Amino acid sequence: MANIVPIIEADDIATEVTRLGALISRDYAGKDLLLVSVLKGSVVFLADIMRAITIPYTIDFMAVSSYGNEKSSSGAVKINLDLKQSIEGRHVLIIEDIVDSGITLGYLMGLLAARHPASLEVCALLNKKTRNEIVIKPKYEGFDLPDAFVVGYGLDYAENYRGLPYIGDLRD
Ligand code: 5GP
Question: Residues with beta carbon inside 6 Å of ligand 1?
């Protein structure tokens, strides 16, 4: 059994998700809001933040690969699943689980910006700021993380541990 040390407890995640949902509800009131979830890691965060947002919105999914089963970025980003709809003139908010180097998000933002949304912002639950190579300032940000590899709350290591209710540091 792997050694996983909890670093953000479920209660603290819930409090933060509620806070982020309230901010989003305030800022996007009266706007045509589309939440774009990046599979698979962000699905647990998406499911929770959907219930914390009190204004109307729609959702869609994208899938990109960057990591494989390794614990460090390959630097390459590939689109495996694209949006099913046009985002032109819509207010797009990317729901992202974690920003590490920022390469994935930087690539996605460039791709989506070229489709002319009315606005394009990011809501990231976790950000490893000391590891950012591309500077992306998420409009909504949960926790700043140390340089650790974390699992749980949707995040995996080789597809395992996504169902943990807390975020834990995976130690070898
Ligand atoms: P970036 O392109 O910012 O380096 O990496 C973004 C993606 O890498 C995230 O969406 C996530 O899938 C994966 N990733 C980065 N750091 C971690 C981590 O600590 N744990 C897990 N499970 N995935 C991570």
Answer: 41, 66-67, 73, 97-105, 149-151, 155-157
Instruction: Determine the Cα angle at 123 with ends 142 and 116, to 5°.
Output: 165
Give the pLDDT confidence of 120-148 residue by residue, as tens digits: 999 999 999 888 888 888 999 999 998 89
Ligand 1 center–CA 85 separation, angstroms: 26
Q: Which of 125, 128, 131 is nearest to 152 (CA)?
A: 125
Domains, the chain: 10-149 (3.40.50.2020)
Task: Report the distance separating Cα 7 and Cα 169, nearest Å.
Answer: 6
What is the H or E stretch that residue 110 is in?
helix 103-113
From the number of C-beta atoms within 10 Å of its C-beta (0-12, 13-18, 19+), residue 137 rates as exposed
CA distances from 142 to 12, 31, 43, 163 (A): 10, 23, 16, 19
Nearest by Cα to 38 from 68, 77, 81: 81
Q: Which residue type occupies 41?
A: G
